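Notes to self after the call with IL:
- keep both proteins in one doc
- input above output, always
- annotate only the second one for now

Protein 1:
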Amino acid sequence: MGSFVKNVLCLTIITLVAGVGLGAVYDVTKEPIRQMEENTKLKAYRAVFPDAAEFKEDDDLNEKAAVAGTIDGCDIDSVVIASDASGNDIGYVINVTTHEGYGGDISISMGADNSGTVRGVEILKISETAGLGMKATEPKFKDQFKDKNVTMFSYTKSGAKSDFEIDAISGATITTKAVVNAVNCGLSFLGSVRGD
């Protein structure tokens, strides 16, 4: 009986020390992780809207995004306003998460100017199959959205013939569909903001 109590006491002490250690590691790494995520977003903002000098948070837009909730399987995570060097608003950066990826959620940033033209798409988070779905991060795929003013994109396996068509990634139709749907969700939200 004495050895049982000794073992329980030993395990309890080990658990307490491990818990305190994990808590300390969390406190130490929390801020650097948050800063790294912010830097990743800012880098994506600059990639999808290179003309912008500043990106401003807008509480009204983010409240509208929260109210919009899920649109066609996607969440509008946040919206920022892109401004030029003179302080004029020139467009929006919309962060969208789709839950339809083959390997899980895919988060994107998309930039669109005031006319609704897509300025760029950048992948924030993705865990698709290497060599297939991960090709969504390559410029060859992402640049298909760039500088197009359409109300909705669709994907095709037979070669894009119109501005609204996106060439599917060979062997990764699910990933292609998820990213196209995420961009469409962003466009849909933008249309509601602009009153289209």
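Protein 2 (the one to annotate):
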Amino acid sequence: MRKKIKAIVRFFVLAGICLGIVLYIGIGFCYRGRFAPGTFINGIYCTGKTTEEVNEELKSIYPHNSIWVQDGEEVQFEISYADLAVNIDYTGQLRKLKGGQNPFLWITALFGSGQTSLAPQVSFEEELLKNALADKLAPAKEPAGEIVEIRKTAGYVLFNGREHVLNFDLVYDTVAAALLEGKTFADISGCYEDLPYTEEMYKTLSLWEQVEAFQSCRIQYDMGDATISLTPEIVSEFIALDEAGGFLLDETGRLVIDEEAVASFIDSLCQEYDTLGSARSFQSTRGDIITVEGGTYGNKIDRDAEIAYLTQALMEHADEVHIPAYEEEARIRGRDDIGDTYVEVDMTEQKLYYYEEGELLLETDVVTGNVRGGHKTPSGVNYVYAMQRDRILRGPDYESFVKYWAPVNRGIGIHDASWRGSFGGEIYKTNGSHGCINVPPSVMATLFDMLEIGVPVVMFY
């Protein structure tokens, strides 16, 4: 009986072993065209899946759908994969991986990590990429590498198309390589090159050195209340041009200065900053803003001297601050040459005021030129050009002794008038002076001590 039981057990054990072997081999046959258990590719569970199935899944999760072209740190543009007919395919890599798996050793795969990273094979249409790059790079306004010329903008500038020229073939190779490697960005900063010059281009570069040196002078005009810098925009106008618009050169090959342009610039300075005899707006003590024209006070630039100076300074590429030469120079240079220390003579009110640094220090009644007698005191901005004590004033029909005399415009001056008993009001209309400003003697003594030669005297009605 025992023998019979042992035989039955042996039979079932042997049958189980055979069945296990058959099942194991059968499972192996199932994995012959599929990935082994525990296989993960790029994070996807691939056990039991065919290479075609895995390929489609991997393509669906491919992270890129375009490539960005950048120049160093600066992004230039984006090109869509769809525009390049880009194809992503993992088939070759998957087959290689699958070929390395023995389907009949499937049980060993259960004890491995099974994690694998694969890169796809990327393909694209070359002509589409070339066209896309040409379209994106086309906005460059100049034919690359063909131009070296001097142009006029704010001054002259050199456009050099031979330096740092983008090599299209290198750009294509760089972007294509980035696509094939599955990169998101392609950096084209290394795709630039310098091209050789032609003989004509060398001549232009040599001329540019002259132009650049000429317009890079650093002359500054100190106009008193303003500084005018001779920028390249201004200086470039001083270069003479020939009839064709090219640079005019002398017999030694040097640039020629446009003398008319230099004179025109100096004339513009004179027009803006010459104040002698010009109309000035003046805030009167009585409250209104009046316009005063004429007189002996003001600045007048020496035009001829300045034209000569600027012509020479330009030739020498001067770098300096220059104060203009003046035929007449006021106490203060600039457009506001009266300043805050001056004498004000209001001939309508018959008042004289003396301001020092903006503070009213003296106010007095005066008598000005006799209107009825034809000696009306003229308006104008004048100045004290002399100061004398104990002077005899003489005219065709008078001779008067004064203790204090401050002439301001030819024979017209400010002085004491001891022969008058009253001042101000309307005396000037019928019993005025011969044109001078008569001041009470006691006041004139004080005023005389305050005055200095050069002080402006603003006279108006």
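Annotation: The mean pLDDT is 90. The chain is about 30% helix and 25% strand.
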